[in-house]
Amino acid sequence: MSDNASGTTTAKTMIESVYAELREEILAGKYPPASKLKVEQLRSAYNVSSSTMREALSRLVSDTLVTTEGQRGFRVAPLSVRDFRQIAEMRKLLESRALRESIEQGDEEWEACVVAAFYRLSRIEEALAQTAEKVAPDWDARNQAFHNALISACDNDWLLRFRDILHHQSSRYLRIALVDTSSVRDVHAEHEAITKAALARDADKACHLIEMHITRTVDVIAAKVVAWEADD
Amino acid sequence: MSDNASGTTTAKTMIESVYAELREEILAGKYPPASKLKVEQLRSAYNVSSSTMREALSRLVSDTLVTTEGQRGFRVAPLSVRDFRQIAEMRKLLESRALRESIEQGDEEWEACVVAAFYRLSRIEEALAQTAEKVAPDWDARNQAFHNALISACDNDWLLRFRDILHHQSSRYLRIALVDTSSVRDVHAEHEAITKAALARDADKACHLIEMHITRTVDVIAAKVVAWEADD
DNA sequence: AAAATAAAAAATATCGATATTTTGTTGACG
DNA sequence: CGTCAACAAAATATCGATATTTTTTATTTT
User: What is the DSSP code (8-state) at residue A65?
Assistant: First the structure.
């Protein structure tokens, strides 16, 4: 269920390690959305038996990254504009709720984490501003770390779990939309405002900002998903 | 993932049918929370091979009804007061959101469904009021049908899915708390008020009522769960 | 007697083979 | 020319056996 940040997944069993690896690869876009996941193929690729492979696949259904139907095997979970919009709506609801709880319950240590995460993100954004590079290898990771830090004081496991699922789903859409980081500067300002509001314990404001933050990306990405849907 | 109301689960494969059956039994409390689910035992009980059994179990992890750890097999998902409170909080959030969307988008057909479901529920409550019976075989089903009808015009699949998971989890707590239907009369009034507000398209009011509806049961059940936790 | 260790039992994870179903192809028929 | 049917190929689901790990039990040591 959970992969640790370092990437060193402590896998006690074959199933777990195959599960973790395949999961990453699906998120990385190695297997296209809605494409068939043939057990025999995967089985030999990962050097495990069919039963083991099937079980790993079954476990991926938990994360809604794989679907399975009747007598016709497994598929990578499909993507659609409709789905993306629904995910975005839910993210607004859950992300802002998690942030609110975090702001209400967070202690000084939490504040420190937020500040640190924002700092790390800012530094890489400065670096990116210099180079005309469109690829941001670490930006994604630090951006994610920042958002995780914001809600790290929320203690509702269900909220975090659902939010996590949606977040991963969302990242698949970002991937196919080939989002560049050219708009990083605007995003930076938004992050700064959110950090400020969070530290000032202004939950209403922070939540509003985070919702805007999500909303802002929806339409631009949705447009690209539409284009992607065409040549499928 | 979905079980149809009639209980006639259309299972194309062994895995699916075993999955569905075991799922119902866990929800029905046949296997105590946190108890071990030994593959060999289940395997022979359901007349399937170990691989098939394991796969069915793996699929139950999707619904968070079963947990699995490293090299030590499967267990029924445990229950705790803390978990119950978190579930209740999330239910308030999701149930009210789903209701709001339903109220905003529902058409006349939806209104008719709500009215019908409320009527069916009311009838059985009248009947129960007569007899001093504490057992309400059909009440649960009709109560659930009523709540499903209320949110049936919500079209966000993720919202419905998460809400469904939480609802099932919640029902496990109701079971161990041995909730009687003595408080049915108060509940009836609440249902009536919710129906009224929904039909009047007063989303704010309806949402507030449904949150109260959930809140009201939390403490009484939480207390019983504490007691249950003791003799475990 | 409590703690540590070794042996036995139980349970889990993994494998490769087989039966069943779906998918794809070819040829007959309207 | 397209639809249908029969067949062939591919893929899925299912099985039972084996290797590994965990848990239990028995034995020894401080």
Answer: S
